[in-house]
User: Fold this.
Amino acid sequence: MLYFSKLTLDKRLVQVSGCVLGGQFVHVLGANGAGKSTLLAALSGLLTAESGDITLQGQPLQDYSLHQLAQIRCLQEQQQNSVFAISVRESLAFFAPQGEFPAALEQALEIEQFLSRSLMELSGGESRRVQVARALWQIWPAIERGRGVILLDEPTQGLDFRHQHLLLQMLTGLALLGNVIIISHHDLNLCQQYAHQVWLMHSGAMVSQGAPDIIMTINQLSGVFGCEVRNFVDSRGNKLWQTYVTQPQQ
Assistant:
């Protein structure tokens, strides 16, 4: 459903290739500056690569008009601070004015209690949940048909543990409908629990991609993040990850 080959952009992306089928939930991992945000922006069509190809639903991405793309793909960027003292409800209506806000989104993201509050009054986590809701509502008709492409850049940033899981559980359900979902973040345990496919990035390149149990190895993760990584299995058989930075000897 989404295919890209040898994307290169100003040293931020270096010959990056990959493919996502409908129904897959992809997690992009990598240190700061690895190229995760740039890749998502390129796949959304907001950034144009210097070279390489992107195909969406069998059609070159550049053949879509911005209006067509806005109906089938959404992008939630890391920095989306509002300078307007409008309510959450007004903000959502402005970005996606069609019909009533979906109850499924309202409940999954738990934003109903502050719909009437100003954007300027929200905490960081509340603001992040509104940003995700706004992105998803933009293409909600396509999502309901299982034809959406959802690109979220660090959507769990600022969220407490409960809302991290609520968000990823909702996205897992949307993937089951047939949608393509690609998110970036840094949490190895969330990735282990929810990802269908993992992309490891380092210095603008795709280091490895595949199923979590294959890609998430101690050697690969340690190399990508530049720190010591260990894992262990708990009493329920779940693999858990821990990270360390070794202090230099005095």
User: Anything to note?
Assistant: The chain is about 35% helix and 25% strand. The two ends are 53 Å apart (CA to CA). Residues 161-176 form the longest helix (16 residues).
